[in-house]
Amino acid sequence: MTAAPPPPDTAQPEVLKFDDNSLLPLLYGEHDQNLARIESQLGVSVASRGNRLAVSGPADAVKSANIALEALYARLKKGLQVGDAEVDAAVRMAQSAPDPAAGATAAKAIHADHLAIRTRKRHVSPRSPGQAAYIDALATHELVFGLGPAGTGKTYLAVAMAVSLLMGGKVERIIVSRPAVEAGERLGFLPGDLREKVDPYLRPLYDALFEMLPAEQVMSRLANGEIEVAPLAFMRGRTLSNAFVILDEAQNTTPVQMKMFLTRFGENSRMAVTGDPSQIDLPKGQPSGLRDAVALLTGMNGVAFIEFTDADVVRHSLVTRIVRAYEARDAAEGPGEAERLDGK
Q1: What pLDDT, in 10s, does the model give residues 36-65?
Q2: Which of 29, 101, 158, 283 has its CA at 20 to 30 Å from residue 91's CA atom?
Q3: How many CA atoms are closer than 13 Å to the CA of 87, on its beta-carbon side?
Q4: Which of 206, 213, 211, 210 is nearest to 230 (CA)?
Q5: Quick one: pLDDT band at residue 202, thresholds 50, 70, 90?
Q6: Cβ neighbours, 10 Å, residue 16
Q7: What span, in angstroms and rounded, lies between the C-alpha atoms of 10 and 140?
Q8: HSE, side-chain direction, 13 A CA sphere, residue 258
Q9: Closest by Cα among 129, 50, 63 to 96
Q10: Is residue 2 very low, low, confident or very high in pLDDT (cuts 50, 70, 90)?
C-alpha cells in the first residue's frame, strides 16, 4: 500500500541544531512548556532530541516556528530571559511579515540592542511590530503619538523610555499626566482632598513607574521632584525643560487642552502622547483633542505617529479577542453608531 502524499502546504520536518547545550533547558522551558506554547500557537509539532529540534506541520507555520526559536535562542545567548511573554513576542514577530526573510528581521527585534530599553528593574524589548516602531520613534523623535487599543504597551513603553533617559542623565525629570475625565462617576462624589480625588485616575502611571524602578527610588524621586505625576490641569502656564513628558489617555483632552499641553515644550525635552481614539469619555458633542492634533500635525517634521492595532495587543490573548469583537461590531454598525458611542 502506497502512503498518501502530504498536503501541498505541509513541509517536511525541518531540523534546527543549537551549539550551546546549556541554554537548551531555558529555550525549551520547564517541562518543554515553551515548545508546547509554540506548537499551540502555530499548529506545528516540535520534537526535541538532544541539541536538535524537528519541526513539522504546515510550511508557513514551520518557517514561523523556526524563526521564533532562532530569535529566542539568540536572546538567551545575550543573557536575556525567555518566558511566556518572550515566546509570544517571537511568534507574533515571525508571523507579522509577508515572507520568511522579513519575519526573521522582525523577530530579531526581541533581542536587538538598539531597541532595548534598560531600567533598574527591567530590560524591555518590543513584543510586536508596532512596539518595535514605537520604541524606535521614542528614541529618535521629540514628539511621538502612540495611538491604539488597550494592551498595546503605549504608556508602559513611554514610561520605560523616560526612566531609561533619566537614569542615563539625558533628561533631569519625568512628568507624567492625564486628564481627570470620569467614565460614569464624578470627582466631587469621591472622598478626600483634590490629590486624593485625582490619584485614582493617575494610578496606571504610578504602576508603570513601579515596574521600572525600585519602590524606594520612585518615592524618593517623587518627593524631590525628579518624577512628577499630575493631572493635565496642573500643566497650564509651565515651560517643561530638560524633561520627558508623557500625556496618557489623550483622547479625553479637548483641543484647547491638547494645544496647552503641546506648547509646554521646553529646551532638551521630549514628549509622548498616548491614547485610544475609539475610547473617548468626553461629554457628547465635545471633540477630542487627540483626533484634532493627529489631523493637524500629521506630516510635521520632528513628530512621529505610531498606530497600534489588535495585532499589537500584548496582554492576555483574551484582550486581543475582545478588541477584535468591538472593532467588528463597530465596523458592522457603521460610522454613525461609532461616533455616537464616542460622544459625538
Answers
A1: 999 999 999 999 988 999 999 999 999 999
A2: 158
A3: 19
A4: 206
A5: confident
A6: 16
A7: 42
A8: 24
A9: 129
A10: very low
| The predicted structure's pLDDT at residue 270 | 96
Cell of 313: 495587543
To 10 degrees, the CA torsion angle through 31, 37, 43, 48?
A: -30
- For residues 32 and 69, give the distance between their C-alpha atoms in angstroms, rounded to a whole number: 13
| C-alpha distances in Å from residue 115, one per residue of 129, 148, 161, 170 | 11, 20, 10, 17
Longest dimension (CA), the chain: 85
Whether 232 has a pLDDT exceeding 70, the answer reads yes
Backbone angles phi, psi at 265, to 5 degrees: -50, 130
Question: To 10 degrees, the CA torsion angle through 135, 140, 143, 144?
Answer: -20
Any idea what DSSP says for residue 63?
Answer: H
Tell me the C-alpha to C-alpha distance, in Å, between residue 242 and each of 161, 165, 173, 267, 269: 14, 11, 7, 6, 5
Q: Which parts of the chain are beta strand (E)?
A: 10-17, 45-49, 52-58, 117-118, 123-124, 143-147, 173-178, 227-231, 243-247, 270-275, 303-307
Nearest partner of 260 among 287, 238, 282, judged by Cα: 238
136-140 own/partner pairs: CB under 8 Å, 24+ apart: 137/304, 137/306, 138/270, 138/272, 139/114, 140/304
d(CA 83, CA 322): 24
3-state helix, strand, coil in the chain (%, to 5): 50, 15, 30
Would you state the cell numbers that stand for residue 226, as one nine-digit string? 525628579
pTM of the predicted model as reported, rounded to 2 decimal places: 0.82
**Cα angle for residues 28, 57, 24 (degrees, 5° grid):** 15
Q: CA-CA distance, 152 to 237, in Å (whole number)?
A: 32
